[in-house]
Backbone:
């Protein structure tokens, strides 16, 4: 009989690429698990690919698709992992390296097969290659933990997280995923699994969108009705601006789900935008804290609002500004605006800022070239379309004069929008520290 677990017997931890980027980081992570895992509980540890592996795999994939040689890149990726494994000085070293080599062979085979398959989409090709990063990282960790007497079960996330076949942006099939994930409640223990990856109902690999490991943690947390989710990061918690770009930042002790979700909407990269909802639905706190200064509290995201209203400055890079101008000398009307919205929806493009004038509608969107090309193609019959690239969007929520000055005094603002609570600026040129 399945024991009736209560909420405080399950937790989920998430470790991103930076927390496993070299052997020292891996050893630190193992120490965190050792200190926090409580026997008789379920702890699901969701892990990303090591360091910048996902970027490297994207590079390799695009080289393969474009017919360039990727052997050196693959060799580099293999050696990057071998160096980490060696640094762990594990008694299992050879086993771990053998396993890595197996993965690299599988990866090579998948790349070879992609070359000859013209019938599958580029997105599906992506999902056949990029998940190797997470598979490799979690196998290394699982073996290393075993060697360190940290008993763990390695879970293949593809068997638990089920998605639609919208490759690269798989949508969760909650019923199916729930059936799979709930089985974990049968047995207490430490489960180690991959973030970001899943599979379709017919068993093809899928991914949840870049930086999607946070979302994976939220999926497990929601289904297990966890006591809390902890995202371990290289920052002390959630700050009101990126400390690499702005001086005088402050950390939030608390944020409400709504406040945190709003920040991710505007592009705060500290957590993946889809992470909040599954947790808010079940009132599960999300803790964001440092994997270096583990004794510090971090930021707790829950029902409770921030104690102090702070201006929050968020930067979103790589924006494109697109203007749709009517072709004759009439004013732009709602029917024409409707055409633009319809095409945006068809191409799954999200508007970050928009503004209209007498004769045009201007939008700022993420600069995904494939999507923008499709958008322009479908609307060029109706509008004169202009595109400006290499822009950034800066959003300030709860603005006050100082937070505004440090944008408009320093940057070349090409579009501005201001409401009582929020200011947004599209700027051109490099973003620097000030
Ligand atoms: N490894 C994936 C990425 O870099 C997923 C993640 O880190 O959350 O996008
Ligand atoms: Mg990452």
Residues:
């Amino acid at each position: 009989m399945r024991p009736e677990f209560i909420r405080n017997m399950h937790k989920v931890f998430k470790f991103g690429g930076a927390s496993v980027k070299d052997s020292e980081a891996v050893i630190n992570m193992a120490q965190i698990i050792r200190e926090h895992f409580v026997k008789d509980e379920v702890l699901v540890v969701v892990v990303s690919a090591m360091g910048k592996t996902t970027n490297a795999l994207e590079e390799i994939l695009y080289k393969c698709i474009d017919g360039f040689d990727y052997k050196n890149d693959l060799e580099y990726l293999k050696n990057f992992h071998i160096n980490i494994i060696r640094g762990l000085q594990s008694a299992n070293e050879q086993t771990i390296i053998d396993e890595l080599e197996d993965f690299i062979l599988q990866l090579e085979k998948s790349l070879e097969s992609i070359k000859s398959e013209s019938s599958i989409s580029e997105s599906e090709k992506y999902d056949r290659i990029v998940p190797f990063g997470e598979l490799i990282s979690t196998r290394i960790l699982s073996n290393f933990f075993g060697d360190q007497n940290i008993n763990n079960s390695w879970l293949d996330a593809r068997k638990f997280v089920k998605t639609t076949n919208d490759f690269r942006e798989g949508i969760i099939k909650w019923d199916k995923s729930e059936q799979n994930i709930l089985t974990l409640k049968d047995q207490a223990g430490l489960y180690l699994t991959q973030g970001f990856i899943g599979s379709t109902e017919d068993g093809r690999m899928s991914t949840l969108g870049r930086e999607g490991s946070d979302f994976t943690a939220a999926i497990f947390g929601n289904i297990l009705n966890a006591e809390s989710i902890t995202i371990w990061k290289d920052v002390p918690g959630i700050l009101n601006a990126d400390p690499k770009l702005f001086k005088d930042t402050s950390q939030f002790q608390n944020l409400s789900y709504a406040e945190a979700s709003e920040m991710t909407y505007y592009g705060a990269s500290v957590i993946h935008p889809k992470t909040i909802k599954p947790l808010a639905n079940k009132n599960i706190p999300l803790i964001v804290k440092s994997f270096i200064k583990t004794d510090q509290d971090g930021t707790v995201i829950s029902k409770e609002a921030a104690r102090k209203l702070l201006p929050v400055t968020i930067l979103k890079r790589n924006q494109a500004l697109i203007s749709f101008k009517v072709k004759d000398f009439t004013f732009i009307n709602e029917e024409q605006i409707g055409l633009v919205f319809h095409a945006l929806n068809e191409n799954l493009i999200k508007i970050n800022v928009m503004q209209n004038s007498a004769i045009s509608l201007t939008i700022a969107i993420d600069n995904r070239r494939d999507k923008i090309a499709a958008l322009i193609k479908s609307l060029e019959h109706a509008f004169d379309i202009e595109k400006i690239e290499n822009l950034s969007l800066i959003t300030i929520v709860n603005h006050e004069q100082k937070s505004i000055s440090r944008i408009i005094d320093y940057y070349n603002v090409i579009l501005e929008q201001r409401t009582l609570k929020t200011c947004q600026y599209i700027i051109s040129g490099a973003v620097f520290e000030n």
Summary: DSSP finds 13 helices and 17 strands in the chain. Confidence is low (pLDDT under 50) at residues 1-5. The longest helix spans residues 93-116.
